[in-house]
Amino acid sequence: MNRVPDSELVLVPGGTLITATPDDGRALAITMARHSIHNIQPDLDILKGGRPNYSTNPDSLVAVSQVIAIEFQTIAAANGYWRG
Amino acid sequence: MNRVPDSELVLVPGGTLITATPDDGRALAITMARHSIHNIQPDLDILKGGRPNYSTNPDSLVAVSQVIAIEFQTIAAANGYWRG
Amino acid sequence: MNRVPDSELVLVPGGTLITATPDDGRALAITMARHSIHNIQPDLDILKGGRPNYSTNPDSLVAVSQVIAIEFQTIAAANGYWRG
Amino acid sequence: MNRVPDSELVLVPGGTLITATPDDGRALAITMARHSIHNIQPDLDILKGGRPNYSTNPDSLVAVSQVIAIEFQTIAAANGYWRG
Amino acid sequence: MNRVPDSELVLVPGGTLITATPDDGRALAITMARHSIHNIQPDLDILKGGRPNYSTNPDSLVAVSQVIAIEFQTIAAANGYWRG
Amino acid sequence: MNRVPDSELVLVPGGTLITATPDDGRALAITMARHSIHNIQPDLDILKGGRPNYSTNPDSLVAVSQVIAIEFQTIAAANGYWRG
C-alpha cells in the first residue's frame, strides 16, 4: 500500500484547537476534515483515484464544505470566536 | 489551470467573524461557504463547468443553503446574535 | 433573465434575528432559507422550473425542512428561546 | 387543491417551545418538522401521494429522524433540558 | 397492521434525558433515534422489510450513526457532559 | 453470525468523554462513530463486505468524516475545548 505520509494522519495538527486568527482556525478545520478521511482510508492511491470524482462534482464539493463548516463551529467556539 | 483569483481563496474575508449587522453576517456566511469550495477546487473552469448543474438542480440548491445555515450559526454566535 | 424581486433577496428580512414570538421566529427561518436559495440562483424561471420537482418529492421536502430546523436553532438561541 | 387543514400549518403549535416533559418536547419536535413540510407543500393529495414512498424507504425514514433530532436540540435547550 | 409494541413508541424512554453514565446516555440516543422512526412508521412488517437494506448498506449505516451523534449531543449537554 | 468482538460494541470506550488532549478526543470521536455502526450491524462479515465500497467511495468517506465532526463537537465541549 502506498500509505499517506504520517503528517497527514495527525488528527489535530498542532495538538490544540486554539489559533491566532479566524483564518488560521478555518485552515485547521479544513486540515482536520482531510485528516479524518486519511485515517479512515490511508491508501494514497485510492484517495488520489477518487479525487477527480469528488473535486469536480459540485454536490461532492458542497458536502465537503459542510464538513468544514461543522469543524469550524467547534474551533470557533474553542477560540471564543476570536472576539479579542 | 485557470485559477480562481486570490481574493476568492481568503478563508475568512475581513479576517474576523464580527460584523455590523445580521445581514452582513449572512453575507459573510455565504462568502465563507463559497471560499471553502474554492480552496478545495481552485480551477475556475471546473467550477464554472459544474455551476449550471448545481445551481439549477433544486436538491443542490438546498444542500448549499444548508451549508450557509451552518456557517451562519457560527457567525451569529460570534456576534452575540446582534442583540444590541 | 427574469430576476426574483429585490425583496426576495434580502438576507435577513427585517434586519434582526429578534422576533416577538416563536411562530414569528419560525417564519423568519423559512424566509431566510428561501432567500439563501434566491441569492445563489436569482433566475425566477429556473427556480419555478425546479419547484414542481422538489416540492412534490418527499426526500426534497425533508431536506428543506432540515435547513429550516437549522436556521431556527440560530433564531431561537438569539431570542433566548422566548422564555419570557 | 385539497389543502391541509389550518391546524397542520401552525409553525409552533401552542405558540411556545416550553413543554412540561421531555416526551412532550419530543412530540413538539415531530409536529414542528411535519408542519414545516406542510407549509412548503400544503397540497394534501401531493403529500399523501408521497407518503407511501418515504415512509417505507429506510433511508427516507432516517432522514426524517434526523430533522426531528435537530428540532429536539432546540426544544431541549429551550427547556433547560428539563433538569428540574 | 402488525404494529410495533407500545414500548417501542415511547419518545423519551424513562421520561428524562438525565442518565447515570455516558454509556447510558449513548444507549438512550440510539433508542430515541429508533423510536422516532417507529412513530413515523409503526408497521413492524414494513420496518422489518426495510432492515436488510439499510443495515447492510454502508451509506445507510453512516446516516443512522449521524442521527445518533446528533441525539447524543443533546443528551450529553443535558447531563453537563457527566463531568462531575 | 461472525459477531464483532465485545470491545467493538462499547458505546463510550473508557466510560467518559474527558480526554487528556484534543488528539485523544478526536480519536474517541472516531471510535464512538465506529461503535455506533457496530451496534446497529454487529455482523462482522456484513461490515467487512461493505467496507471496500464506502472506504473507496469519496462521497461515503465525506459522510463518515461528517459524523466524526459531529461527535467531536460534543467531546470538545465536554473538555472545555482543552483550553488549559
Tally of separate helices of chain A: 3
Please give the share of residues in helix of chain A: 55-70%
Please identify the oligomeric state: homohexamer
Given the helix and strand composition of chain A, which structural class is it? mainly alpha
Radius of gyration of chain A: 14 Å
Number of domains of chain A: 1
Question: What number is the mean pLDDT of chain A?
Answer: 94
The strand count of chain A comes to 0
**How can the largest sheet of chain A be summarized?**
none
Beta-strand residue fraction of chain A? under 5%
List the helices and strands and how they pair.
Six copies of one chain form a homohexamer.
Chain A: H1 22-40, H2 44-54, H3 58-78
Which terms would index this structure?
3 helices, homohexamer, mainly alpha, 84 residues, 61% helix
Structural commentary:
Chains A, B, C, D, E, F: It comes from Orlajensenia flava. Chains A, B, C, D, E, F: It holds the Pfam family HTHP. Chains A, B, C, D, E, F: InterPro entries: Hexamer_Tyr-coord_heme_pr_HTHP, HTHP_sf. Chains A, B, C, D, E, F: This is Hexameric tyrosine-coordinated heme protein (HTHP). 6 copies of one chain form a homohexamer. Chain A has one domain. Chain A has 84 residues and is mostly helical. Chain A has helices at residues 22-40, 44-54, 58-78. Chain A has 3 helices and no strands. The model of chain A has no long low-confidence stretch (mean pLDDT 94).
